[in-house]
Specification:
The chain is mostly helical. It has a domain of 221 residues.
Length: 419
């Protein structure tokens, strides 16, 4: 006896689709990493808008008669904030008018892509220093010394760039390797001190930051390093054969951004695919359990800090070979300290660090235009960066402000289980 059966496959498919949509909707406003990061950036820009308004005397004057004519104050505030943030975006990614001029033949593609070029130029060294901090943190170490390691990377890469006079390509390769080795040596010192004596890496790296800065200030005034045609603290110019080649001729973006992407992929592979990556993650999670499992914690610390220092040294090499072209006491800027913020914003993940560096580069490039065109202080960009990091570091605050739900990972068609 045969019985007719209705096909259940479509019903199960619809149920799975409904489950996926419901899970997506439920988690869209949940306290996951993407939502918290996006809302942190939004909060930072909202507070930044308030600061822009209160720092403008003309707009504040219109708030004196707000109750009588509120439209005047609101309109002026909107005009000021929208103009400032519009210039920020144009300075970071490009001006639509420049693209229109390029398309109709009255402008050049270099003018259209110049803002994006500045963003990538500022971001390139931050990727390296951010990866340095993030990698060390994954191994349980707080590398405050990325600034000093980047400075030494600048020194070794810069000296190699003008001292050897090697042929093209070879001179560049030697200078880049020299920068990485210089940073690796400066990172190895606190690593071996941590491994052998238990000296806290925060203290040793902070002291080495000062040592590196003072060494650079002394070095650029020495005979053979200082530019013989100058009396101020500046070294000889980097040979053209050792400079990172730029794209488009007049654009400042250079090969360093491609090296930064390659370094990000390398660090991601090191963490997730290599045996050393497993060891450093095990040590970072629980050094006592890792030692019991037969992992040499001391060796891991020393090697980890050397690799982290090498990454920061590459950031310094990128700075001097691709942007500065000479050594000065301030050649490294704050790329090491900014790397701390980049790593925190990227949640100590390689690709997250890359995107965070691009965001910081965009803020810096856009801030220059915002200052020039809208008259907004460049320090506001620093405030925005700080606010973003503060909210990223305090997800509970963002969750409370926006009433986010707790994150729940649900697979379509699967039931939740406790345990």
């Amino acid at each position: 006896m045969s019985t007719e059966t209705t096909p259940e496959a479509p019903a199960k498919k619809d149920e799975a689709e409904e489950s996926f949509l419901s899970a997506f909707t439920r988690n869209l406003w949940a306290a996951n990493t993407v939502t918290v990061t996006a809302l942190s950036i939004l909060l930072a820009f909202v507070i930044g808008a308030i600061l822009i308004i209160v720092s403008d005397a003309e707009v504040l004057a219109q708030f004196a008669y707000f109750t009588a004519r509120p439209a005047d104050a609101l309109s002026a505030s909107w005009q000021l904030v929208s103009t400032a943030y519009s210039d920020l975006l144009k300075g970071a990614f490009g001006d639509p008018e420049a693209f229109s001029a390029w398309f109709n033949g009255s402008g050049t593609w270099q003018d259209a892509f110049a803002p994006l070029s500045e963003t990538l130029t500022y971001a390139a060294p931050l990727v390296f220093t951010g990866l340095s901090v993030a990698l060390a943190f994954r191994g349980g170490l707080f590398n405050i010394g990325a600034q000093g390691q980047a400075v030494i990377g600048c020194v070794t890469a810069g000296v190699a760039g003008f001292a050897f006079g090697l042929p093209i390509v070879l001179n560049l390769v030697v200078a880049i390797v020299a920068g990485a080795l210089g940073g690796a040596l400066w990172g190895f010192i606190p690593g071996i001190l941590k491994a052998r004596t238990g000296a806290h890496e925060v203290i040793t790296t902070i002291m080495l930051n000062y040592t590196a800065a003072l060494f650079l200030s002394w070095l650029v005034l020495q005979k053979g390093v200082q530019d013989p045609n100058r009396t101020d603290a500046i070294s000889k110019a980097i040979d053209e054969s050792a400079q990172l080649p730029s794209f488009g001729g007049v654009l400042r973006v250079h090969l360093g951004i491609l090296l930064a992407v390659a370094a990000t992929a390398g660090v991601a592979w090191l963490l997730n695919r290599s045996s050393f990556g497993f060891e450093l993650r095990a040590v970072g999670a629980n050094q006592h359990a890792a030692r019991t499992a037969g992992i040499s914690v001391a060796k891991t610390y020393a090697l980890l800090m050397a690799i982290a220092g090498g990454l920061a040294g590459l950031g310094g090499a990128t700075q001097v070979l691709g942007t500065a072209y000479a050594l000065t006491p301030a050649v490294a800027g704050n790329i090491g300290f900014d790397g701390l913020l980049v790593a925190l914003l990227g949640r100590n993940k390689p690709w997250g660090t890359l995107w965070a560096a691009l965001l910081f580069g965009a803020l810096r490039a856009g801030g220059n235009r915002m200052q020039s065109y809208a008259g907004i202080s460049l320090e506001l960009v620093t405030v925005l960066q700080a606010l973003i990091v503060i909210f990223i570091a305090a997800p509970a605050l963002v969750k409370a402000i926006f009433r986010l739900r707790a994150t729940r990972l649900v697979r379509p068609g699967a039931s939740l289980a406790k345990g």
